[in-house]
UniProtKB/TrEMBL annotation:
This is NAD-dependent epimerase/dehydratase. PANTHER family: BIFUNCTIONAL POLYMYXIN RESISTANCE PROTEIN ARNA, UDP-D-APIOSE_UDP-D-XYLOSE SYNTHASE 2. It comes from Streptomyces mobaraensis. It comes from the Bacteria. It holds the Pfam family Epimerase. Gene3D superfamilies: NAD(P)-binding Rossmann-like Domain. Residues 3-222 form the NAD-dependent epimerase/dehydratase domain.
Length: 301
């Protein structure tokens, strides 16, 4: 089985490619902008016809799209997260219409939960910002493509390799830089999120890739339990032996204030793929810290 992973050098892409390479008989091809990629491409600016030529050469049985950006200019957010999946679907229709597509969406497509009910796949999509809107546009391009295509709508991923652009990554970096008795300054950490281990996300991708029959539409991939961002900080502090103080008086994220609670209903993923998360919240945070503490400490600013 030939599997093309787009965005294989990103946080979720690395975990996903590693899991897929462990499949018997699988040949995993990396695709993206990184030097040495087996299929060099940039979905944000690619021409569908040119991408189709490259896809014919790669001849994938399955394409996994982990490419995406969470911040930056509006042009990048929309080009990568909205235009990119649309271009990929058009190119696949031209070059490999029988190939399976597994695309990673985002819980930001939903918007705020009501604080009481878990979000099912039939919940209204009402994204609160451009990132969520762009990811939703990408999801609609995939689900409307007519391909053997599935969107895994990922909630808040964390785990080893969490980037410093994410809240868990920033917290780990702050604890490491503060030292065991220092102060870590953050914004308000009261928002509830559904945090899911990136390795569980990767396992969901593997199950989607190897499903014997097509599984289409959208499936939530989360833990099924909402935790506060404060619990993430506390768990990382325990793992690090941090005795200092977390000061929540800093500037917070406007999006967090507008989205105080979100939790996934993961029943459908269990029914369709036989998937459930395996990693416990505290174990994930311990593994995140074990990896983060080995990174070089940034120079003082």
């Amino acid at each position: 089985m030939r599997i093309l992973v787009l965005g294989a050098t990103g946080f979720l892409g690395r975990h996903t490619a590693e899991r897929l390479r462990a499949l018997p008989g699988a040949r995993v091809l990396d695709g993206g902008r990184s030097p040495g990629a087996a299929l060099p491409c940039d979905l944000a600016g690619a021409d569908p016809a040119d991408l189709a030529v490259a896809l014919r050469g790669a001849a994938p049985d399955t394409v996994v799209n982990c490419a995406g950006v969470t911040g930056g200019a509006a042009t990048a957010l929309t080009a990568v997260n909205a235009r990119g999946p649309a271009v990929l679907c058009e190119a696949l229709r031209l070059a490999a219409p029988a190939a399976r597509l597994v695309h990673l969406g985002s819980a930001a497509e939903y918007g705020a939960g009501d604080g009481a009910r878990s979000l099912t796949e039939s919940a209204p999509t009402a994204p609160l910002g451009l990132y969520g809107a762009a990811k939703l546009a990408g999801t609609l391009a995939v689900t409307g493509s007519g391909l053997d295509a599935l969107v895994l709508r990922v909630f808040n991923p964390l785990g080893p390799g969490s980037p410093p652009t994410s809240l868990p990554g920033r917290l780990a970096e702050g604890i490491r830089e503060a030292g065991p008795d220092g102060v870590v300054r953050t914004g308000d950490l009261s928002a509830h999120r559904d945090f899911v281990d990136a390795r569980d996300v990767a396992r969901a991708v593997v199950l989607a890739v190897t499903a014997p029959e097509p599984v289409t539409g959208v499936l939530n991939i989360g833990s099924g339990t909402a935790h506060t961002a404060r619990e993430v900080a506390e768990g990382l502090a325990r793992a690090a032996g941090f005795r200092g103080r977390v000061d929540e008086g800093g500037d917070g994220s406007p999006r967090s204030a507008a989205l105080p609670w979100q939790q996934a209903d993961i029943t459908a993923a269990g029914r369709a793929l036989g998937w459930r998360p395996e990693y416990a919240f505290d174990d994930t945070l311990a593994d995140l810290w074990a990896e983060a503490r080995l990174r070089p400490v940034r120079a003082a600013r």
